[in-house]
Amino acid sequence: MLSARAAVRNLKEYHPPLGGRTGLRLDFNENTVGCSPRVLEALRKLDYEQLARYPEREPAEREAARFLGREAPEVLLTNGVDEAIHLLCETYLEPGEEVMVVVPTFSMYEIYAAATGARVVVVPAGQDFSFPTADVLAGIRERTRLIAVANPNNPTGTVASREDLLKIAAAAPDAAVLVDEAYFDFYGQSVLDAARDVPNLFVARTFSKAYGLAGLRIGVLAGAAEQMKMVRRVSSPYNVNGVALACLPAALADTEYVQKYAAEVRRGRERLEKELASLGLQFWPSQANFVLTRIGAESGRFVRAMRERGILVRDRSSDPGCQGCVRMTLGSAEQTERLIEALRAVIAELRSTGVSA
What we know:
The chain is of the alpha/beta class. Helices cover 39% and strands 16% of the residues.
């Protein structure tokens, strides 16, 4: 009888609650106002021939490399950051080797790593979700082959310093060190410039967040050319669809659009954090396009009440250390005011019924 590998049979499943998302989408950290008009224009120019032929990745890849200040051999376009993670796991992990992740964090690091038969070593975040550099360094062993760090981290919005990330890469020369910079545009700090000189350092970026291209599924992985050559061996030559490849140059060209949106999000983030403080709610200062706050035992009720007011937010209670926590995405200034208005009303409602929130 046909049977899946043991690593797959034992794999925990990840089912994002994407169904029935009616309302203001502040639950999945997406761009809430849409992509650049230049991208829409590029879409309108697509013809039947472009859709009928196999996609050619290299021209858009060269554009992405120039945009990042890299050489083309140092860059690989991927089907979102998810594929970048998957490719690194397939390239460097053998069954029984170890992968280190700091939790809470993005679930797909653990899932893709465990699917290879590797052992996932979980390191809890420090106090107030601070990055536990000393614990990570102490956990590096001979069999450590991958260390994945989201920076800024999801769902907490906290960050690791550049110095600490490079210290970890230096301490684990036999491990691939992935710094996932999906939220870079809302933070502004990066280790990408070090990737050329640190051969085990990889940096991933996505165009799903600030660029508003989540539906096209496109990201980029950068690293030293000799290592990226190995990663390319396990990548399909057609891994990124032709529509995404046709739109990416237009998205990259409109830096003003992305910068304006990111700046508006940062202002909204500050506005929301001040409101949470005034309401007496615990939260963690964020460097991403979202804020994590602790509602308490009624977090599920809070999420439902916000939905009834047309605002979608995400209960993160199942994440390690996040019991009773809810993550709220920021968007335009108008959307942030809608969020805050609903937040005030729901918290007042919970407190009026004697619920601690």
